[in-house]
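Box 3.1 A note on notation
Throughout this textbook, protein chains are presented in two layers. The first layer is the amino acid sequence; the second is a token string describing backbone geometry. Keep the layers aligned when reading.
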Amino acid sequence: HRLTLDTSFTGKDKLRTRLRTGNFGSSAFSGQGNNLTSLDTASKTSDEVTIDRLFYKFPVGKEVTFIVGPMARNTESLAMWPSKYNKGGAKILDFFAVAGVPGVYNKETGSLIAAYWKQKVAKGDPAFSISANYVADDGEGNDSNPTTGGIMTDNSNGNILAQIGWGNGQYGAAAAYRYGQCGSGMRRMTDYIKDSDVLDCSTGHNSNSRSSNSFALNGYWQPEETGFIPSVSVGWAINTINGENIADGEYTTSQSWFTGLKWDDVFIDGNDLGFAFGQPTFATALKGDSDPDDGNYAFELYYNYKVTDNITVTP
């Protein structure tokens, strides 16, 4: 369950506080056993109501926006989202909710500072945008010690995300890059990469000098009118690991990709049909071995049925 509280002081700014509670716990829905089964909305809060968003968003001029807060998310601080697959619709598997590139759009949440520029154009025309943000996963205030956490330290589990995008409501594309410190994750991946945990700073053979560099290309197109032809969204990413003491057999490079198809107003206005497939992050190169023989596929099919104006059921 989520409750969002928005406040505006000028009509153009926004102070957001979001409360959340959930009891998914250790289940397949939250990725227990195999992290690829995790649902986008699954959460566990140990029978507590927690604050999972707290940030202030405000414009500077007509084209620049700043976001700052102790609990904000990098993927929610971008000028554009380069996918139409689940935009405004159902979000089932978490892998598809991040446009098939979890190494870049990893939903890192914590102390954040962000800014983006979006070109002001006539309504309907495609616009260029540039976004950049920094978020410290261990900087929310529960660990301000720079030797174990903090903001902009070697132990912040920090992420820097930058994106260049172009598009409008019908078509668009984006190129994005994320730098991740040791301890920052690539979210959804095969069991092999999950078990390797080369970015887990808590294990003895690893070092906080390890980091990741991730690149992604995404694009989307949808028809001008709903009908037999669906919208098409695609994404591809490559991730590299850098640092000390990487043992033979540990992965150094991984990739992911997805394709999502969505039909609007299927049978009844307001009902959507979606189908997506792809490969969550899988190893493509190992240290000392060029053939990792890794990979899993993910699929989902859903129908978003609008029962009333306020109730939607999605099998």
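Residues 191-196 form the longest helix (6 residues). The helical segments are 94-97, 191-196.
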